[in-house]
Amino acid sequence: MRSATGYRALAAGAPLKPWNFERRDLRADDVAVEVSHCGVCHTDLHAITDASGAFPVAPGHEFVGTVTLVGDDVTEFVVGDAVAVGNIVDSCGRCDMCSAGQENFCREFPTLTYGGRDRVNGTATIGAYSSEYVVRDRFVYHRPTNLDPAAVAPLMCAGITVWEPLRAHNIGPGTRVGIAGIGGLGHLAVKFAHALGAEVTVFTTSDSKVSEAGALGADRAVVSTDQDSMDAQTGAFDLIIDCIPVAHDLAPYLKCLALDGTLCSVGFLGSQTVDTMNLLVGRKSLSSSGSGGHRYTQEMLDFCGEHCITADVEVMPSAQVDVAFERLEAGDVRYRFVLDMSDLH
Fold it and tell me: Is the pLDDT of residue 269 over 90?
C-alpha cells in the first residue's frame, strides 16, 4: 500500500481534518499522480454538508499533477508527465455508452473519484484533496503544459460539463448560443462558445455581471429580470446552456430558442416541471448533460491548450480548505476556488 495525506470530514457540517491513509498499490493499468492542485466544487460542498450522505467523506474530483509511477501495462503515460483527472475514475467498459467513449453515462454507473466503489476490490474511493491519487490509466488525461495547472483543474468538472453539449450540438461559426448564469460552469461555457466561433449571449440576473460577460468573450448580455429584454430574444438561439444552480422557471429560456433549438440544463439537476407547449411551438428540445467521457475530455484539454483557455480561479493553500467552503457557500468566489496541495508534500 502507498501512504498518503489528505483531508476528510467526519460528519455533516464538520470541518475537514488532515488524515493519513493508504492508497492501493498500482495495478497493471494504474497511474500514480502526485496531486499539485485540486478544484473546490459545489458537489464537494454538498457532500460535506448533506446529513443523509455517507461519512467520513474525503472530497476532491477535479485535479492536476505529475505522474510518479505507472503500472506494467501502461503505455500512454510515463513518469514526469503533466496530467489531469476528473470526477470519473472507472466504468464498466462494456456497455453502449462506454463503447462510444461516453463513460460518464455508463449503464452500470461510473466509479466516482470519491464516494464511489472500486470495481476490483469494492473499497470506497477517496478523493483528491490529498497528496497522491492512484487511478486507472483510461481516466487520466494529458495536460497542456503551456497553461497554469491550478487554472486547468476546474476544467475537469465544470469545463467538461459545458464542453460536451457545445460539441454534441456542433457549435461553431454561424451558431447562436445563450449561456444562463455566470459561475463556475457558465464562465467556461462563455469562453468555449466564443473560442468555437459562436455568437454568444449571457443571461444574468445581475447588472454588475454585464461587463463581466463581455470580458469573458460574450457578444452581449441580457438581464433576465427585464421582461422587455427577454421578449426581444424570442427565437434567437440555437442552443442555450442553462448553468443556473437552483430550481427556476425554464419557460422564459425555452421561448428564446429558435426552430429545433435545444435548452441543455447542466446547473440544476433536480426535478422541474415543463409545459409541453413550450417545447411544441418550434419543435424545441430539453436536454441535460453531466461530466464527460474520454472522447471529449482530451479534446477539450487540447483545445484549451491551443486557445489558452483556463478557468478564472482563486488559489489558496489546502490548509485553508474550510475557508474555501465557507466562502463558496456564501457565493464569494469568481469563479472557482482551487487548493494548492503542495503543503501536503
Answer: no
> Helices marked H in 308-342 — which ranges?
321-329
Residues with Cβ within 8 Å of residue 343, at least 6 apart in sequence: 317, 318, 319
Predicted pLDDT of residue 251: 96
- Confidence band of 116 (pLDDT split at 50, 70, 90): very high
Residue among 129, 150, 83 at smallest CA distance from 313: 150
pLDDT at 173: 98
Rounded Cα gap, residues 261 and 245, in angstroms: 22
* Three cell numbers, residue 286: 430539453
Residues 154/336, Cβ–Cβ less than 8 Å = yes
Predicted TM-score (pTM) of this structure = 0.96
CA distance 186 to 175: 18
Cross-strand partners of 2: 23
DSSP string covering 213-261, please?
HHHHT-SEEEETT-HHHHHTTTT-EEEEEE---S----HHHHHTEEEEE
The amino acid sitting at 148 is D
Report the side by side order of strands in the sheet with 176-180.
Answer: 220-223, 199-204, 176-180, 237-242, 257-265, 285-288
* Pair 262, 239: CB distance under 8 Å: yes
**What gap in Å lies between CA 261 and CA 277, rounded to an integer?**
14
Backbone angles phi, psi at 243, to 5 degrees: -105, 10
pLDDT of residue 211: 86
CA distances from residue 40 to 138, 159, 216, 294, 327 in whole angstroms, order as listed: 23, 13, 21, 22, 11
CB 15, CB 135: distance < 8 Å = no
- Going from the N-terminus, what domains does the chain have, and what CATH number goes with each? 2-157+292-344 (3.90.180.10), 159-288 (3.40.50.720)
Helix axes 294-307, 158-168, angle to 10 degrees: 100
pLDDT tens digits for range 171-203: 999 999 999 999 999 999 999 999 999 999 999
With residue 6 as reference, give the H or E element that holds it. Answer: strand 2-8
- Distance from C-alpha of 69 to C-alpha of 217, rounded to nearest angstrom: 40
